[in-house]
């Protein structure tokens, strides 16, 4: 069955003008319904979710952006959601977690975006039932169109019996891939910092600024990415019953990617710590080199100072007030200073 086209200009976006009750959050909600793995409808009103779910082989998705607690009332009524889970969905800065309720689960996670060395975390929540997935975004930082494209590429008749599991797989797979992209970007930033540390220019202030920023970003990414291992591992448990057996290998692949993100993040944190230690060691070595050169030049300068000071005494000495005395003092200065310079140069003190 071909899907009914949405009345708005954006696919799957509901028409808030035709349905005023759909004014939820900072953007029009987006809805889709599948039957036996094939897209059946999109852009329908939020209140029509229950109607679509009456079909035993239908799967429904609803996306909300910037929704408040009172905005989720109609969704909570449609899916019988607990007020505690609704409160977590609209609250900011919740930790990455998976909470199980009677008949559904609540998932909270973060989508990282690295732009110019700065890391931004976009919070994303989801309510998961056997045949429905509701995503709640705090802002528009998460690309919903990319998620829809991923579903369209993977959906088909073979996913018809997996319920909302295939929607959840596409969501988790995209989020973990974005976390991998963020780690990759931070890895490239670490390479640039490493080049600065071991380069000849050695800009101390820039190295300090970029290294501490990188370490802060890695700490923030680790805080939201490492718990994803436990989230996916919990979904793979048979008693949870949110993942159909045909989808187990796919979720196992997502779990492997979460392990890679965690290990990569930990490795980068250790690398940054080593770079900071190397920076301090190199800075100390450069200071020692400078002090060695300054001391060597001071020794060279001490020779003419001593000679001129000696000949500047108000006492007669060989060559006093004579041209030969000036020549003798000049020769002594040049020979002694030159000898010290050669010796220091051979010992790499200059």
From TrEMBL:
Its main location: membrane. It is found in: Cell membrane. CDD domains: TmCorA-like. This is Magnesium transporter. Residues 1-32 are annotated as: Disordered. It comes from the Bacteria. GO terms for cellular component: plasma membrane. The chain crosses the membrane at residues 294-312, 324-344. Gene3D superfamilies: CorA soluble domain-like, Magnesium transport protein CorA, transmembrane region. One of its GO terms (molecular function) is cobalt ion transmembrane transporter activity. InterPro entries: CorA_cytoplasmic_dom (IPR045861), CorA_TM1_TM2 (IPR045863), MgTranspt_CorA/ZnTranspt_ZntB (IPR002523). It is a multi-pass membrane protein.
